[in-house]
Amino acid sequence: LLNSLLKGQVAKAIQKVINTDLPHPLSWLTGYFAMVVGAGMTFVVQSSSVFTSAITPLIGLGVISIERAYPLTLGSNIGTTTTAILAALASPGDKLASSFQIALCHFFFNISGILLWYPLPFTRLPIRMAKALGERTAKYRWFAVLYLIICFLLLPSLIFGISMAGWQALVGVGAPFLGLLFFVGLVNALQAHSPGRLPKWLQTWDFLPAWMHSLQPLDRVITQATLCCTDRCRSPEGWEEPEGTPRDKARLGLDNPALSYPEEMPSPSTRVGSLRPLPHGATRL
Predict the structure, then answer these.
(1) Mind listing the GO biological process terms from this record (predicted)?
(2) Could you say which of 12, 124, 141, 235 would form a disulfide bridge with 254 (CB–CB 3.0 to 4.6 Å)?
């Protein structure tokens, strides 16, 4: 719906207004002004989820850049604290001090996050992380689901379960894991920028099994497993189609032209496994 509405001059006007920096020498204040806008909009709708959910598809359409959406989201995190502050101000007199302290904790926690991850350009890691996850998901569409399951279900459940055994168990398991994570991140950075500083065997991860440094083996497994749930298993006898990654992904409905890599793009004129051409302007599902 947004894609059909935001076309032509409308999209160009929105892009020009939202993504334009303030005039020099105030251009460095543009991000902070975007925070004020995000906080104000969130204060109006009284929900950061509503605001961020509204701008997310606009980022996907290219109307708002990620660099501009980042301060808008940070400002939204400030605006959502007003809900707690207003609720605290409405507390009974004997509870006002305690409730207002908690509301201010919420406010200063978000302020601290902004001071930690925004003022200096090299600290804006969430922008680079978002781009990396987006590129990975564009290549492997199932990666988004796997990321959500691991980061929002399995990993928190695992940490909670270990913590139930005591802080000693949590430290004993968590410290080696964090050390390994730091080592991998350091090696990746050196491989990208100064590979000569590393031993020859560490300059690439090729010495490891493929499944430990590439998602391609897992992609083949998930693609083949998911194909068994499609109409391919229920097709009449004798119906066959050539095997291959582009066709397999098309069968799974993963051929979004806006995100697909060129080598993964199926023919735009015919539907895989069918001799009938697609209607003009039809969208694959």
Answers:
(1) intracellular phosphate ion homeostasis; sodium-dependent phosphate transport
(2) 141
